[in-house]
Amino acid sequence: MKLTxxxxxxxxxxxxxxxxxxxNLKIDIEEINKYLALRQSGYGRGGRQKIExxxxxxxxxxxxxxxxxxxxxxxxxxxDYANWQNTMAPEGADISxxxxxxxxxxxxxxxxxxxxxxxxxxxxLERASARETAIRVAAGTIARxxxxxxxxxxxxYVKCVCGVEDTKEYSFNELERAKExxxxxLDSQKQTTAMALVDELKKEGDTAGGVIExxxxxxxxxxxxxxxxxxxxxxxxxxxxxxxxxxxxxxxGLGERVGYLRGSQVHDEIYYENDEYLRKTNNAGxxxxxxxxxEEIVLRAAMKPIPTLMKGLNTVDYITKQPCSAASERSDxxxxxxxxxxxxSVTAIALAEVVSERLxxxxxAEVIQRYVALK
Length: 375
Ligand code: EPS
What we know:
Number of strands: 17
Strand content: 15-25%
Order of helices and strands: EEHHEEEEHHHHEEHHEHEHEEEEEEEHH
Largest sheet: 5 strands, antiparallel
CATH topology: Chorismate synthase, AroC fold
Bound molecules: ligand EPS
CATH class: Alpha Beta
Shape: globular
Helix content: 25-40%
Number of domains: 1
């Protein structure tokens, strides 16, 4: 499977070509739109989300709701393009209208301008923007639908917002209600504290990030490989999570804590009962030796605070070289709920790819048959 995305934040839209899906997979467009709406939700978002009402259009590869086995082309139109057409239109535009030279620390602006030989950071930020993730959520929901026919489900929640941390443990089934919460947090007291903090940060012109936990239930053992470094499941999943804008750390299972504990406190002991190899703990987060071991996969990722601060950060104007305050027109204070949906989606995309590498299959019946036959 291969996913290629295209599109600028204030251009005509976001687009994707998703290759390698088997034929006869049923595509639920309403579910794609549900996840697109969830990606736009959450406390702390800014003005842009009031403009956009993301909806997917499937342009190829699906007929009467079933995949054909051909590349699936997807689009999500930017409503805001109507307000930016005069400066963004490929056919001809006045590029002087929205130039940005007060490069923003934490963004791609400065290095991108030097690397791509630009004098306007807009030519960098338009593509670097997290708006691109809308189309990854659309494709990710198709990947989710592929995994679901095999009995694999993905969920998650927000564990921490700017230091307000929920340290409780939750079962997979408890996670689903997170999406009904304003910050996708499961501890209501922590969530209230976090929302008050977001209000305070907004007043101060500041921003926040947080920590997200993603879980995968129902994947059989043996996906990924211990035989070659680039086939390891943990490497594949962590790379997918790290590819999401603003994600600065990713961990599996106990993660960083393994460096602070003894072997006897870390490894999940094995016992045998009712014809099954079982564990009492899942510190490994469902992955050992680069392969799924049949336990739930547990991933955590930290998102940095949004780097456009309304109060501005100290920087330099790229053209005049004079010190100034970084550009800020409008911004999200926090986009942690969006990130949670995006991380579920990229997990689905990476996992679907790993699964299809092992199972192959030109049509979904063949895929299911091969999966069922696995030990
Ligand atoms: C983003 C800046 C903001 C965000 C945007 C990501 O957009 P704008 O510059 O239009 O105010 O809202 O995210 C989205 C549009 C989205 O749909 O997630 C950035 O610079 O990364």
